[in-house]
Amino acid sequence: MELKNNKSRELWISKIGFIFAAAGSAIGLGNLWRFPYVTGMHGGGAFVLIYLLSIIAIGFPIMMAEFVIGRRTRRNPVGAFAELGKKKGWQLVGWLGLATGFILLSYYSVVGGWILDYLLKSFRGLFHGKSPSEISGMFDMLMKNPMRQVFFHALFLVSVTYIVSRGIHKGIELWNKILMPLLFGMLLLLMVNSLFSSGAREGLKFLFCPDFSKITAASILEAMGQAFFSLSLGLGTMITYGSYLRRDVSLMSSATEICALDTMVALVGGIVIFPIVFTYGLAPSAGPGLFFVTLPVVFSVLPGGRIVAFFFFLIVTFAAITSAISMLELVVSYFIDERRWTRKKASIIMGFAIFLFGVPSALSFNILKDVTLIKEMNIFSFLDFLVTNYMLPIGGLLIAIFCGWFLSRKESLDEIRVLGGNIIVYRFWRFIIRYVTPFAVFLVLSWKAGIIAI
Ligand code: PHE
């Protein structure tokens, strides 16, 4: 416990460096791969609307709460709750977060592996001139190939482990600053291309015209879970990143910027993908393969598509890695702070353990495809369901309750007002984090669990 107010902790160099790092954690496969496919599976517009509402009423206030806890203590989530929580039980929230990060990274890295495989495919120009059905065949081939999936899963995790073992600040701030704007620029170009396609009207209608008849308790929970997933909330990643944040940076404006950037990338991702879906008569509800089928279809016909494809997958690889880094950093920071492991030892041991834990997910589309857990889900989908629909929202609920009810007013006010932040805004946030956020999350969870009927 001697780490209290650990002043020697490495800090982000600048506010903008922090924003890019936190946005780098938030922006990733959640925006480009997961958001479009869950939106497609849950009927489009109405789902998007609930997702946006969740960002405002649940995501944003919890992001502030995580920053407050992290910066106040300058510690990893387990240590932070131990220090602020007084009662020992609160540490469990930190532990839950660590477990969530561990499981999440184990299958996120499998998808990261798919991206690497597509990076290689695009480098070899394999999409060029192929028909949509040949392209979806390529994805199926990859799913059926256990060795290839495990190999790329390993390669992805080795890269992430290497970067985390060297310390996240060296280099990552810089790369984020260069590549994040590039990702955005590229998405905007692809968006223009999609908007000129023949399916543009239908795609936009699907994405933005709500049809509430498609909404069920399950899809509301999924939309809320997607908000947690996309903003990297509920497991303590933002506690960890906030713990490296200097005191002269405003939490309110940082959280606003990060939420806005993340949401923009998800929406632009949707605007890129759905017009293509309708132009080529693909199924919006295709599932996890949606991203991997739609974009190559565009690259196959786009002039200069070969080069565009390669740069696109390169940047998406980077976006996936920066998100994965924040998951591993969360786990590793515990072993460094509380167990006194060296950064190198903690990264290598945890990276390897996560790799092993992720192997069944990589095999759940082939060798283990008949192993179904609840509701016919394979291991991969089950873990994703468990993490996004339950572990993240429950973690977020506890973080909101802790910050709203157990942290003294003085403690949170201190953090939020460092730059003379507006007291009215503070009061508003405190009201939301005490009453609205916990109530909303609780309601959705219990509705889904069948405890209440609406
Ligand atoms: N937000 C990341 C994404 O959208 C995923 C993530 C979740 C990262 C939780 C860290 C913690 O891809």
Task: Give the gist of this structure.
Helix content is 76%, strand content 0%. It has 18 helices and no strands. It is mainly alpha-helical.
Structure description:
With 454 residues, this protein is an all-alpha fold. It has helices spanning 15-26, 29-41, 45-73, 77-85, 91-123, 132-144, 146-165, 169-195, 200-208, 217-230, 237-243, 251-279, 290-301, 305-339, 343-362, 379-406, 409-416, 423-448. α1 packs parallel to α12, α3 (45-73) packs across α11 and α10 crosses α16. The longest helix has 35 residues, at 305-339. The model is unreliable at 1-7 (pLDDT under 50). Phenylalanine binds at residues 25-26, 28-31, 104, 229-230, 232, 235, 237, 323, 326-327.
List the helices and strands and how they pair.
Elements: H1 15-26, H2 29-41, H3 45-73, H4 77-85, H5 91-123, H6 132-144, H7 146-165, H8 169-195, H9 200-208, H10 217-230, H11 237-243, H12 251-279, H13 290-301, H14 305-339, H15 343-362, H16 379-406, H17 409-416, H18 423-448
Helix pairs in contact: 1-8, 1-12, 1-14, 2-10, 2-12, 3-4, 3-9, 3-10, 3-11, 3-12, 3-16, 3-17, 3-18, 4-5, 5-7, 5-14, 5-15, 5-16, 6-13, 7-14, 7-15, 8-12, 8-14, 9-12, 10-16, 10-18, 12-13, 13-14, 14-15, 16-18
Residues 25-26, 28-31, 104, 229-230, 232, 235, 237, 323, 326-327 line the site of phenylalanine (PHE).
